[in-house]
Amino acid sequence: MDKNIRRWLKILLETDIPFQFVSITGFPVIKNLCLELGLPAPTIIAGNIVIGEIKTCDLLLTSHLDELSFGFKHLDVGGGWMAPYHLYTPAKSKSELTIIGIRNKKTSVIGRGILVDKDGSPFCETNINLEVGDRAVYDYPVTISNNLISGKAIDNRAGILICLLSLKNLLDNGLSVAIALTDGEEHIPTGYFSRYFPHLLSYLKKGCEICFIDGIYKEGLASAGVKELPTSALVIPHSSYGKGYIVPPLTWGWLRDEMVPQAQKEDIKVQICPAYYSRGDDWGLVTNPSTQNNIEGFFISYGAWGDRGYEPPLTIDLESIDNCVKFTTFVAEKKLHK
Protein backbone atom coordinates (compact mmCIF):
# COMPACT_ATOMS: atom_id res chain seq x y z
CA MET A 1 0.00 0.00 0.00
CA ASP A 2 1.31 3.44 -0.94
CA LYS A 3 2.55 5.14 2.22
CA ASN A 4 1.05 8.44 1.01
CA ILE A 5 -2.57 7.21 0.95
CA ARG A 6 -3.09 8.32 4.54
CA ARG A 7 -1.75 11.82 3.86
CA TRP A 8 -3.67 12.27 0.61
CA LEU A 9 -6.96 11.20 2.17
CA LYS A 10 -6.39 13.54 5.12
CA ILE A 11 -5.94 16.46 2.71
CA LEU A 12 -9.20 15.61 0.95
CA LEU A 13 -11.12 15.16 4.21
CA GLU A 14 -10.01 18.51 5.57
CA THR A 15 -11.31 20.41 2.53
CA ASP A 16 -14.83 21.90 2.77
CA ILE A 17 -16.73 21.29 -0.47
CA PRO A 18 -20.49 21.95 -0.17
CA PHE A 19 -22.89 21.40 -3.05
CA GLN A 20 -21.92 23.64 -6.01
CA PHE A 21 -18.42 24.24 -4.59
CA VAL A 22 -16.54 21.48 -6.46
CA SER A 23 -15.25 24.01 -8.99
CA ILE A 24 -14.57 26.61 -6.27
CA THR A 25 -12.98 24.99 -3.22
CA GLY A 26 -12.45 21.50 -4.64
CA PHE A 27 -10.53 22.42 -7.78
CA PRO A 28 -7.37 23.87 -6.14
CA VAL A 29 -6.90 20.76 -3.98
CA ILE A 30 -7.40 18.39 -6.91
CA LYS A 31 -5.02 20.46 -9.04
CA ASN A 32 -2.29 20.12 -6.42
CA LEU A 33 -2.85 16.37 -6.08
CA CYS A 34 -2.64 15.98 -9.86
CA LEU A 35 0.70 17.79 -9.85
CA GLU A 36 2.04 15.53 -7.12
CA LEU A 37 0.80 12.37 -8.83
CA GLY A 38 1.98 13.41 -12.28
CA LEU A 39 -1.55 13.40 -13.71
CA PRO A 40 -2.87 15.66 -16.49
CA ALA A 41 -4.10 19.07 -15.41
CA PRO A 42 -7.78 19.03 -14.37
CA THR A 43 -10.44 20.98 -16.21
CA ILE A 44 -13.99 21.97 -15.27
CA ILE A 45 -16.91 20.78 -17.40
CA ALA A 46 -20.47 21.58 -16.33
CA GLY A 47 -19.40 22.03 -12.72
CA ASN A 48 -17.51 18.73 -12.60
CA ILE A 49 -13.74 18.25 -12.50
CA VAL A 50 -12.47 16.14 -15.39
CA ILE A 51 -8.97 14.68 -15.66
CA GLY A 52 -7.90 13.05 -18.91
CA GLU A 53 -9.39 12.99 -22.40
CA ILE A 54 -13.11 12.56 -21.76
CA LYS A 55 -14.10 12.75 -25.43
CA THR A 56 -11.90 9.84 -26.49
CA CYS A 57 -11.61 7.68 -23.37
CA ASP A 58 -12.68 4.04 -23.40
CA LEU A 59 -13.42 4.03 -19.68
CA LEU A 60 -14.56 6.82 -17.36
CA LEU A 61 -14.07 6.45 -13.62
CA THR A 62 -16.40 8.67 -11.64
CA SER A 63 -16.84 9.63 -8.01
CA HIS A 64 -18.54 12.60 -6.34
CA LEU A 65 -16.51 15.30 -4.61
CA ASP A 66 -19.28 17.28 -2.90
CA GLU A 67 -20.28 16.55 0.69
CA LEU A 68 -23.39 16.78 2.86
CA SER A 69 -24.28 20.44 3.15
CA PHE A 70 -26.91 22.99 4.10
CA GLY A 71 -27.88 26.40 2.74
CA PHE A 72 -29.11 29.25 4.94
CA LYS A 73 -32.64 30.25 3.96
CA HIS A 74 -33.82 32.46 6.83
CA LEU A 75 -31.89 34.36 9.49
CA ASP A 76 -33.19 34.51 13.04
CA VAL A 77 -32.13 35.49 16.53
CA GLY A 78 -29.10 33.43 17.51
CA GLY A 79 -28.45 31.93 14.10
CA GLY A 80 -30.30 30.81 11.00
CA TRP A 81 -32.65 28.21 9.56
CA MET A 82 -31.14 25.97 6.93
CA ALA A 83 -32.32 24.06 3.88
CA PRO A 84 -30.72 20.61 3.85
CA TYR A 85 -29.02 19.97 0.50
CA HIS A 86 -28.99 16.23 1.18
CA LEU A 87 -31.15 13.50 2.64
CA TYR A 88 -31.37 15.00 6.11
CA THR A 89 -32.08 12.83 9.13
CA PRO A 90 -33.22 14.88 12.14
CA ALA A 91 -30.30 14.87 14.53
CA LYS A 92 -30.78 13.42 18.02
CA SER A 93 -27.70 15.26 19.21
CA LYS A 94 -25.98 18.50 18.32
CA SER A 95 -23.32 18.59 15.60
CA GLU A 96 -20.66 21.15 14.90
CA LEU A 97 -20.79 22.96 11.56
CA THR A 98 -18.36 24.94 9.44
CA ILE A 99 -19.97 27.91 7.67
CA ILE A 100 -18.70 28.95 4.24
CA GLY A 101 -19.68 32.21 2.59
CA ILE A 102 -18.98 34.45 -0.37
CA ARG A 103 -17.94 37.97 0.64
CA ASN A 104 -16.68 40.51 -1.89
CA LYS A 105 -16.46 37.74 -4.52
CA LYS A 106 -14.16 35.68 -2.29
CA THR A 107 -14.92 32.33 -0.69
CA SER A 108 -13.91 31.77 2.91
CA VAL A 109 -14.78 30.03 6.14
CA ILE A 110 -16.65 32.75 7.99
CA GLY A 111 -17.23 30.93 11.23
CA ARG A 112 -18.67 27.93 12.98
CA GLY A 113 -21.98 26.96 14.50
CA ILE A 114 -23.97 24.17 16.12
CA LEU A 115 -26.63 22.16 14.27
CA VAL A 116 -29.79 21.84 16.35
CA ASP A 117 -32.88 20.04 15.10
CA LYS A 118 -36.13 21.84 15.85
CA ASP A 119 -39.17 19.72 15.03
CA GLY A 120 -37.46 18.21 12.01
CA SER A 121 -36.00 21.49 10.71
CA PRO A 122 -32.25 22.15 10.93
CA PHE A 123 -31.23 25.33 12.74
CA CYS A 124 -27.67 26.59 13.13
CA GLU A 125 -26.84 28.29 16.41
CA THR A 126 -24.09 30.86 15.85
CA ASN A 127 -23.16 34.42 16.74
CA ILE A 128 -21.45 35.27 13.45
CA ASN A 129 -22.91 37.58 10.81
CA LEU A 130 -24.74 35.25 8.48
CA GLU A 131 -26.13 35.97 5.02
CA VAL A 132 -28.91 34.17 3.20
CA GLY A 133 -27.28 31.68 0.85
CA ASP A 134 -24.29 30.91 3.05
CA ARG A 135 -23.45 27.20 3.23
CA ALA A 136 -22.66 24.87 6.10
CA VAL A 137 -20.97 21.48 6.26
CA TYR A 138 -20.36 19.10 9.13
CA ASP A 139 -17.21 19.81 11.13
CA TYR A 140 -15.43 16.71 12.39
CA PRO A 141 -11.65 16.50 12.86
CA VAL A 142 -9.74 13.83 11.00
CA THR A 143 -8.56 11.08 13.35
CA ILE A 144 -6.04 8.40 12.43
CA SER A 145 -5.28 5.15 14.21
CA ASN A 146 -2.97 2.83 12.28
CA ASN A 147 -4.89 1.96 9.08
CA LEU A 148 -8.18 3.40 10.33
CA ILE A 149 -9.06 6.97 9.40
CA SER A 150 -12.24 8.83 10.36
CA GLY A 151 -13.64 12.13 9.17
CA LYS A 152 -16.58 14.16 7.91
CA ALA A 153 -16.47 13.33 4.21
CA ILE A 154 -15.28 9.76 3.77
CA ASP A 155 -18.37 9.74 1.51
CA ASN A 156 -16.92 10.19 -1.03
CA ARG A 157 -13.37 11.49 -0.68
CA ALA A 158 -12.28 7.85 -0.39
CA GLY A 159 -13.76 7.30 -3.85
CA ILE A 160 -11.97 10.39 -5.16
CA LEU A 161 -8.62 9.01 -4.03
CA ILE A 162 -9.41 5.62 -5.58
CA CYS A 163 -10.15 7.36 -8.90
CA LEU A 164 -6.94 9.41 -8.81
CA LEU A 165 -4.65 6.49 -7.94
CA SER A 166 -6.33 4.15 -10.43
CA LEU A 167 -6.03 6.76 -13.17
CA LYS A 168 -2.30 7.09 -12.50
CA ASN A 169 -1.83 3.33 -12.81
CA LEU A 170 -3.84 3.12 -16.03
CA LEU A 171 -2.32 6.14 -17.77
CA ASP A 172 1.14 4.82 -16.88
CA ASN A 173 0.12 1.66 -18.75
CA GLY A 174 -0.95 3.67 -21.79
CA LEU A 175 -4.69 3.04 -21.48
CA SER A 176 -7.41 5.46 -22.59
CA VAL A 177 -9.04 6.34 -19.28
CA ALA A 178 -10.37 9.57 -17.76
CA ILE A 179 -11.99 10.44 -14.44
CA ALA A 180 -14.87 12.72 -13.47
CA LEU A 181 -15.06 14.14 -9.96
CA THR A 182 -18.63 15.30 -9.78
CA ASP A 183 -20.85 17.80 -8.01
CA GLY A 184 -24.49 17.51 -7.01
CA GLU A 185 -24.58 13.86 -5.99
CA GLU A 186 -25.24 14.81 -2.39
CA HIS A 187 -28.66 16.35 -2.88
CA ILE A 188 -32.22 15.68 -1.87
CA PRO A 189 -33.06 12.23 -3.32
CA THR A 190 -36.72 13.10 -3.83
CA GLY A 191 -35.41 15.14 -6.74
CA TYR A 192 -32.24 14.36 -8.63
CA PHE A 193 -29.58 12.18 -7.10
CA SER A 194 -27.27 13.20 -9.89
CA ARG A 195 -27.41 16.89 -10.81
CA TYR A 196 -24.19 17.64 -12.66
CA PHE A 197 -22.85 14.27 -13.83
CA PRO A 198 -25.42 13.70 -16.64
CA HIS A 199 -24.09 16.75 -18.48
CA LEU A 200 -20.89 14.79 -19.12
CA LEU A 201 -22.61 11.92 -20.92
CA SER A 202 -22.85 13.80 -24.21
CA TYR A 203 -19.04 14.04 -24.26
CA LEU A 204 -18.52 10.28 -24.18
CA LYS A 205 -17.94 8.34 -27.36
CA LYS A 206 -19.95 5.30 -28.36
CA GLY A 207 -18.68 2.23 -26.55
CA CYS A 208 -17.24 4.10 -23.57
CA GLU A 209 -18.09 2.52 -20.22
CA ILE A 210 -18.38 4.08 -16.76
CA CYS A 211 -17.08 2.72 -13.48
CA PHE A 212 -18.95 4.25 -10.51
CA ILE A 213 -16.86 4.33 -7.35
CA ASP A 214 -18.64 5.04 -4.07
CA GLY A 215 -19.08 3.58 -0.62
CA ILE A 216 -21.41 1.19 1.14
CA TYR A 217 -22.06 2.22 4.72
CA LYS A 218 -23.08 0.60 7.98
CA GLU A 219 -26.80 0.05 7.36
CA GLY A 220 -26.18 -1.11 3.80
CA LEU A 221 -23.44 -3.49 4.93
CA ALA A 222 -25.67 -4.81 7.70
CA SER A 223 -28.28 -5.74 5.07
CA ALA A 224 -25.74 -8.24 3.74
CA GLY A 225 -24.84 -9.56 7.17
CA VAL A 226 -21.51 -7.70 7.26
CA LYS A 227 -20.64 -7.07 10.91
CA GLU A 228 -17.07 -5.80 10.64
CA LEU A 229 -15.44 -2.96 8.73
CA PRO A 230 -14.52 -4.40 5.30
CA THR A 231 -11.01 -4.29 3.92
CA SER A 232 -11.85 -5.74 0.51
CA ALA A 233 -13.21 -4.12 -2.63
CA LEU A 234 -16.95 -4.77 -3.03
CA VAL A 235 -18.74 -5.51 -6.30
CA ILE A 236 -22.53 -5.07 -6.54
CA PRO A 237 -25.06 -5.78 -9.31
CA HIS A 238 -27.27 -2.70 -8.89
CA SER A 239 -28.00 0.36 -6.78
CA SER A 240 -30.94 0.67 -4.39
CA TYR A 241 -31.81 -3.01 -4.85
CA GLY A 242 -32.59 -2.41 -8.50
CA LYS A 243 -34.42 0.91 -8.15
CA GLY A 244 -31.35 2.65 -9.54
CA TYR A 245 -28.91 1.57 -12.23
CA ILE A 246 -28.55 -2.16 -12.95
CA VAL A 247 -25.29 -3.52 -14.35
CA PRO A 248 -25.98 -5.09 -17.79
CA PRO A 249 -26.15 -8.92 -17.65
CA LEU A 250 -23.09 -9.66 -19.79
CA THR A 251 -20.94 -7.19 -17.89
CA TRP A 252 -22.17 -8.50 -14.56
CA GLY A 253 -21.52 -12.11 -15.52
CA TRP A 254 -18.00 -11.18 -16.63
CA LEU A 255 -17.29 -9.40 -13.34
CA ARG A 256 -18.79 -12.12 -11.15
CA ASP A 257 -17.50 -15.22 -12.94
CA GLU A 258 -14.17 -14.01 -14.33
CA MET A 259 -12.82 -10.80 -12.84
CA VAL A 260 -13.48 -11.42 -9.15
CA PRO A 261 -12.11 -15.00 -9.10
CA GLN A 262 -9.07 -14.03 -11.19
CA ALA A 263 -8.30 -11.04 -8.99
CA GLN A 264 -8.62 -13.17 -5.86
CA LYS A 265 -6.04 -15.57 -7.30
CA GLU A 266 -3.69 -12.59 -7.62
CA ASP A 267 -4.17 -11.78 -3.91
CA ILE A 268 -6.46 -8.80 -4.49
CA LYS A 269 -9.08 -8.71 -1.75
CA VAL A 270 -12.43 -8.37 -3.53
CA GLN A 271 -15.84 -9.95 -3.11
CA ILE A 272 -19.31 -9.97 -4.58
CA CYS A 273 -21.53 -8.12 -2.12
CA PRO A 274 -25.35 -8.18 -1.93
CA ALA A 275 -25.47 -5.13 0.36
CA TYR A 276 -27.77 -2.16 -0.18
CA TYR A 277 -25.97 0.49 -2.23
CA SER A 278 -27.62 3.91 -2.40
CA ARG A 279 -28.28 5.59 -5.72
CA GLY A 280 -25.77 8.25 -6.72
CA ASP A 281 -24.32 9.48 -9.98
CA ASP A 282 -25.50 6.24 -11.60
CA TRP A 283 -29.00 7.74 -11.35
CA GLY A 284 -27.99 9.97 -14.25
CA LEU A 285 -27.94 6.92 -16.52
CA VAL A 286 -31.49 6.04 -15.46
CA THR A 287 -33.43 9.30 -15.37
CA ASN A 288 -31.79 11.92 -17.54
CA PRO A 289 -29.10 10.60 -19.87
CA SER A 290 -28.04 13.31 -22.33
CA THR A 291 -26.64 11.08 -25.05
CA GLN A 292 -27.90 8.94 -27.92
CA ASN A 293 -25.22 6.35 -27.20
CA ASN A 294 -26.06 3.42 -24.98
CA ILE A 295 -23.48 4.11 -22.28
CA GLU A 296 -23.11 1.22 -19.83
CA GLY A 297 -21.54 1.07 -16.39
CA PHE A 298 -20.64 -1.00 -13.35
CA PHE A 299 -19.82 -0.47 -9.66
CA ILE A 300 -16.71 -0.89 -7.52
CA SER A 301 -17.22 0.00 -3.87
CA TYR A 302 -15.49 0.31 -0.52
CA GLY A 303 -17.02 -0.17 2.91
CA ALA A 304 -17.11 2.45 5.67
CA TRP A 305 -18.56 2.45 9.16
CA GLY A 306 -20.35 4.98 11.34
CA ASP A 307 -23.10 5.22 13.93
CA ARG A 308 -25.28 7.61 11.88
CA GLY A 309 -25.81 5.73 8.64
CA TYR A 310 -23.97 7.53 5.86
CA GLU A 311 -23.74 10.79 7.85
CA PRO A 312 -20.40 11.75 9.40
CA PRO A 313 -18.22 10.82 11.03
CA LEU A 314 -17.38 7.66 9.10
CA THR A 315 -14.40 5.36 9.46
CA ILE A 316 -12.60 3.50 6.70
CA ASP A 317 -9.74 1.02 6.66
CA LEU A 318 -7.06 2.26 4.27
CA GLU A 319 -6.59 -1.32 3.09
CA SER A 320 -10.05 -1.05 1.54
CA ILE A 321 -8.90 1.91 -0.56
CA ASP A 322 -5.77 0.03 -1.60
CA ASN A 323 -7.79 -3.03 -2.68
CA CYS A 324 -10.26 -0.88 -4.61
CA VAL A 325 -7.37 0.74 -6.49
CA LYS A 326 -5.88 -2.68 -7.27
CA PHE A 327 -9.19 -4.14 -8.42
CA THR A 328 -10.18 -1.07 -10.46
CA THR A 329 -6.78 -1.18 -12.18
CA PHE A 330 -7.10 -4.96 -12.72
CA VAL A 331 -10.59 -4.75 -14.26
CA ALA A 332 -9.74 -1.78 -16.48
CA GLU A 333 -6.63 -3.47 -17.84
CA LYS A 334 -8.53 -6.68 -18.62
CA LYS A 335 -11.44 -4.79 -20.19
CA LEU A 336 -9.36 -2.46 -22.34
CA HIS A 337 -6.93 -5.18 -23.43
CA LYS A 338 -9.73 -7.45 -24.71
Walk me through the structure.
With 338 residues, this protein is α+β, with helices and mostly antiparallel strands. It is built from seven helices and 17 strands. It has a six-stranded mixed beta sheet with strand order 1-2-12-3-13-16. Strand 14 (233-235), helix 5 and strand 15 form a beta-alpha-beta unit. Helix 1 (5-13) crosses helix 3 (154-172) and helix 5 (249-265) crosses helix 7. The longest helix has 19 residues, at 154-172. The mean pLDDT is 93.
State mean pLDDT (0 to 100 scale).
93
Element order: H for helix, E for strand: HHEEEEEEEEEEEHEEHEHEHEEH
* Main sheet: strands, sense, barrel: 6 strands, mixed
pLDDT < 50 stretches: none
CATH fold topology of the largest domain = Aminopeptidase
CATH top level of the largest domain? Alpha Beta
Tally of individual domains: 2
DSSP strand count: 17
Per CATH, the superfamily of the largest domain is Zn peptidases
**Gyration radius, to the nearest Å?**
19 Å
How big a fraction of the residues is strand?
25-35%
SS class? alpha+beta
Terminal-residue CA separation: 28 Å
CATH second-level architecture of the largest domain: 3-Layer(aba) Sandwich
Number of helices: 7
The shape, in one word, is globular
User: Share of helix among residues?
Assistant: 25-40%
